[in-house]
Amino acid sequence: MNGADLRIGIAGITGRMGKLLADAVPLAGATLAGGIGRDGDLAALARESDVVIDFTVAATVSRHAGILAGAGTPWVLGTTGFDPAAEADIADAAARIPVFQAANFAPGVNLVIALAERLGATLAAETHDAEILEMHHRQKIDAPSGTALAIGAAVARGRGVDLAAVKDSGRDGHTGKRETGAIGFAALRGGQIVGSHSAIFTSAVEQITLTHHALDRRIFAEGAVRAALWLAGRAPGRYGMRDLLGL
Ligand SMILES: NC(=O)C1=CN([C@@H]2O[C@H](COP(=O)(O)OP(=O)(O)OC[C@H]3O[C@@H](n4cnc5c(N)ncnc54)[C@H](OP(=O)(O)O)[C@@H]3O)[C@@H](O)[C@H]2O)C=CC1
Ligand SMILES: O=C(O)C1=N[C@H](C(=O)O)C[C@H](O)C1
């Protein structure tokens, strides 16, 4: 199917991302099938859409997984902050429909994620402490950001460990000394910062920092629409920016 024939529905169309997605769909040559805010009917939107792009809130993810899998409508999921139970529901949906999930649709930050995995694999956890720093606008409701967690997961993958086993988030008070092998997170909030992420590796003798600053949310909207065009017509399964970008 070419872009002009593809009908894209937007869950979260009244939000910061949803409004930009509504602009980005026709700019990419696709058709805006419609959109819903919190009171909208996702099942009805799914029936009118070849792909649904979803940027809402974490609490919707399990419900949306069931509705879109039931409707057989491919799902591009940009929402962050969901828990392991929702993660399992996304995996169940991916057995029935194609699901493209990304914490961040900016191509550049996905290169940072890929490099973070490589640094994690190359720099020993015993010598190089890994810390992830993120800063976002004052309206953001989840922390650490989905992207920060994706960077941390990449470092952990490179080190051959589970992030959950080594994650050190929200230090405050008498924390004790840093654990060797821990992956630390710090989240800053303020103003209208679109999204900044750094992965910082520090040893006794050197420091390596990978940084990405998103300067305009359109980078996420354009990436999500590109993902929708890429996803349409694929087999059920779980896809992400690594597949789209060939990383
Ligand atoms: N993957 C990526 O590249 C990016 C991901 N994000 C993520 O996308 C999500 C949305 O971000 P943003 O647009 O800034 O958020 P906003 O708060 O601006 O928008 C949230 C949207 O979700 C809707 N919504 C709120 N509650 C519910 C509900 N209970 N059920 C259904 N819909 C609901 C809102 O509808 P209403 O107006 O009716 O309340 C609104 O349309 C966040 O999780 C954010 O972290 C953001 C940027 C990039
Ligand atoms: O809420 C946001 O704004 C953003 N959320 C995503 C995240 O949690 O990583 C992506 C981006 O940083 C903007």
UniProtKB/TrEMBL annotation:
Annotated catalytic residues: 136, 140
Residues annotated to bind (S)-2,3,4,5-tetrahydrodipicolinate: 137, 146-147
EC number: 1.17.1.8
Top-level EC class as recorded in UniProt: oxidoreductase
Reaction(s) catalysed (UniProt annotation): (S)-2,3,4,5-tetrahydrodipicolinate + NADP(+) + H2O = (2S,4S)-4-hydroxy-2,3,4,5-tetrahydrodipicolinate + NADPH + H(+); (S)-2,3,4,5-tetrahydrodipicolinate + NAD(+) + H2O = (2S,4S)-4-hydroxy-2,3,4,5-tetrahydrodipicolinate + NADH + H(+)
Main subcellular location: cytoplasm
Binding positions (NAD(+)): 12-17, 78-80, 102-105
Keyword Nucleotide-binding included in the entry's annotation: no
Pathways involved: Amino-acid biosynthesis; L-lysine biosynthesis via DAP pathway; (S)-tetrahydrodipicolinate from L-aspartate: step 4/4
Keyword Amino-acid biosynthesis: yes
Family the entry assigns: Belongs to the DapB family.
Subunit structure: Homotetramer.
Job description of the protein: Catalyzes the conversion of 4-hydroxy-tetrahydrodipicolinate (HTPA) to tetrahydrodipicolinate.
Protein name: 4-hydroxy-tetrahydrodipicolinate reductase
Organism: Acidiphilium multivorum (strain DSM 11245 / JCM 8867 / NBRC 100883 / AIU 301)
